[in-house]
Design goal:
The chain is built from 18 helices and 14 strands. The protein is α+β, with helices and mostly antiparallel strands. The strands form five sheets. It has a four-stranded antiparallel β-sheet with strand order 3-14-6-9. A four-stranded antiparallel β-sheet has the order 5-10-7-8, with no helix packed on it. It has a two-stranded antiparallel sheet with strand order 1-2. A hairpin with a 2-residue loop joins strand 1 and strand 2. 32% of the residues are buried.
Length: 529
């Protein structure tokens, strides 16, 4: 408090822009450190029971604060989180600054805490066995499951404290950024144009798309003509069968009718989402009755593909909604664009009809090529929850993942030395975090040459190793709560409960395994080798 009042406050109040930023960094670091110290003391009080599990957990918390390896990560976490707001470019739109801060602060704090959890769990158990400290615990009425559960409870409780500190800091810094001027504002929430009654576009997107919990609706796909689809499938199947029969070298795979049908359905969907030059297409979004009742602005999000998706190309699109003037937008290819719309455009039955023209409707200037939207590249969203509620759910999912990682490290540490246990658990962590990228890479991975005649042996071995890893950790990789908070998408309670149940089910399984391993250890004769 003395440093904050005597140093940080004068810098914030009277300092130049550089010293002002340093004052904010200093004040943020002091606030985070004070919050951490207070919550750790509260955690010790909660774990002050004489039960073996809570006693071991309390000892882990005390040990974590005392150990240098934990202190390094905790200080690193405070510095990174406090310095992020000052590193943002004030010239960029406010919504991008807030999204950048949320992306790096939430994911960065999670990764730092995860690494701390892995090393702390391994160090706490392995060092006690190596230094014979565990004899003092094993000679007391402490069961193996007491010991394993106590270690996990201590580490996961410390992770919860750190997440709470980081989450509070992220919320406070986000609120600080929110009250900065957006593009087109002289001060926060005050447009630069005196006669302007509505909020600026930058502020509207920030409030209703980023700092919210949104649900999305994609365009209604017209019912398929089953007879036409089946006819197209038969034509393609006959063509593929002829190609297979004419191939004497047998390098062409036999035709698969189910696979061909999926390709036909994909092509028809792509045709529905494509617009030729100087042409228009109508898209209907249903299920927006709640958005109309709320009366808040809705957001149209779209991504356009055309030709080679050159980043230098600019396409002009015209958007027409019911009761509004046509809006012409310049669009970069392969880039997600958000555009606010009025909820008044939604009909009474909750349907929004949107006409999109491939060109400038006002100037009668068509674009040079056909445009298309990817399957997830055209949607309408509206907020149904606050940013704080959504952020709390994200923190819950992150903590369930950290609790799972803590038990993974505890399990390996019951029978491995610290270096091997740390390397193994960190490898599991990297495999789990990279499983989604691995799955996407395997879709385009080749194990044969260009002519599909020669098998590349090293690529085949890599595929044999990567495929089970991607499948094993797919459940973990699909949990991307940070993406929800950055994009302002609602993380539903059902998803939170499902992910939490899955994580704690696996944690319980690892707990039983760790207890069985620890029960069979001969601790009194452990030599450290």
């Amino acid at each position: 408090l003395s440093v904050g009042i005597g140093v940080a406050w004068p810098l914030i109040k009277y300092g130049s822009p550089g010293w002002h930023s340093f004052g904010l960094f200093l004040a943020g670091g002091i606030a985070l450190a004070a919050a951490f110290a207070g919550l750790v003391q509260g955690l010790r009080f909660v774990l002050s029971s004489s039960h073996p599990v809570t006693a071991i957990a309390k000892n882990v918390v005390t040990e974590a604060v005392r150990m240098k390896i934990s202190l390094v990560f905790i200080v690193m976490l405070m510095i990174v989180l406090a310095s992020l707001p000052g590193l943002l470019d004030p010239a960029t739109p406010l919504r991008y600054r807030v999204q950048t801060f949320l992306q790096y602060s939430t994911s960065g704090s999670y990764f730092i805490i995860a690494i701390l959890v892995l090393f702390l769990s391994a160090a706490s158990i392995c060092f006690e066995q190596r230094d014979k400290v565990i004899w003092q615990t094993a000679t007391k009425p402490v069961s193996p499951w007491h010991y394993v559960l106590g270690k996990w409870l201590g580490v996961s409780s410390l992770a919860a404290v750190l997440l709470a500190v980081c989450g509070t800091g992220i919320l406070l810094f986000t609120e600080y950024l929110r009250n900065q001027p957006a593009q087109g504002e002289v001060v926060a929430f005050v447009p630069a144009t005196g006669g302007q009654t509505n909020v600026t576009e930058d502020r509207m997107i920030l409030e209703y798309q980023v700092l919210s919990g949104r649900v999305s609706e994609r365009p209604l796909i017209p019912p398929s003509d089953e007879q036409a689809i089946q006819q197209d499938v038969e034509i393609r199947f006959a063509r593929a069968a002829k190609e297979y029969n004419d191939d004497t070298s047998r390098t062409v795979a036999p035709p698969d009718r189910n696979k061909i049908r999926l390709e036909v359905e994909k092509d028809r969907l792509q045709q529905f989402l494509s617009i030729p030059p100087a042409r228009s297409a109508l898209y209907q979004f249903v299920g927006l009755a709640n958005a109309r009742a709320l009366g808040k602005p809705i957001t149209l999000r779209y991504k356009v593909n055309a030709g080679g998706n050159l980043p230098t190309d600019l396409y002009r699109l015209t958007f027409i909604v019911l009761g509004a003037q046509p809006v012409v937008r310049e669009t970069h290819l392969a880039t997600a664009i958000a555009m606010p719309l009025s909820a008044a455009a939604i009909s009474r039955d909750g349907t929004l009809t949107l006409e999109i023209s491939n060109g400038d409707w006002e100037r009668q200037l068509p674009n040079k090529e056909t445009i298309s939207f990817p399957p997830d590249g055209l949607e309408v969203s509206f907020p149904v929850a606050s940013f704080r509620d959504n952020f709390f759910r994200v923190m819950l999912v992150n903590w369930s993942k950290l609790a799972f990682l803590a038990m993974v490290s505890v399990m390996f540490s019951t029978f491995l030395a610290f270096p091997v246990a740390s390397l193994t658990t960190f490898g599991v962590f990297l495999c789990a975090e990279g499983a989604k990228f691995l799955s996407e890479s395997l879709d385009n991975f080749r194990t044969t040459d260009v002519d599909n005649k020669t098998v590349i042996w090293w690529a085949q071995i890599a595929e044999w190793i990567a495929t089970p890893i991607a499948r094993l950790f797919r459940f973990y990789a699909e949990l991307r709560p940070t993406d929800s908070i950055v994009e302002g998408r609602l993380l539903e309670w059902t998803t939170v409960f499902q992910s939490g149940s899955m994580m704690f089910g696996l944690t319980a399984l690892l707990f039983l395994t760790a207890t069985a391993i620890f029960r069979s250890r001969e601790l009194a004769t452990y030599s450290g080798q």
